Amino acid sequence: MRASDISPEFPLLGFLSQAPSHGYHLHMRLEEELDGVWNLSQSQVYNILKRLESKGDVRGEVLQQKSAPAKRLLALTAAGRRRFKAWLREPTPGSLRALRMEFLTRLYFARAQDLRFARDLIEEQKRAIKNDVKRLQQIYDELPDKQLLNRLSLQLRIRQLDSCLEWLEDCRASLLQK
Predict the structure, then answer these.
(1) The whole model's pTM is what?
(2) Binning pLDDT at 50, 70 and 90, where does residue 175 land?
């Protein structure tokens, strides 16, 4: 998965993996619990939920109410649960945007399941980033000096990823305090 493949489907699947819910409630949870990560309008949430339902990851049931309009209760299907679980265990691509959005979303749901799982997720992410740094450093080392801009670009990426490794250590330390 590339950073451009970051999808807001996964936090919604994650919330639904915890319990069936209504679209409005899912939107409110996004705003309250993951507002610093995801910024979606209510209409975007409803469109994503419709897409998830058409893909077979979510199923909806209309519940009639006596004194209010009918509500649509959404639940995760077995396919949606498998898709979410597989995504939850993947390392996040080594870009700042992907780490801010994807990794923090994964960490949120991993932490809700089990603190040990959240720590393991951090360690796996650190390994993936270290491999990216090693790969980029090798490319950098093989570039001729005359390719200055390419070398500077790689230096920037390596430094960003080094900074991400420090940040992941901070994440781990924060988890241990809880």
Answers:
(1) 0.87
(2) confident
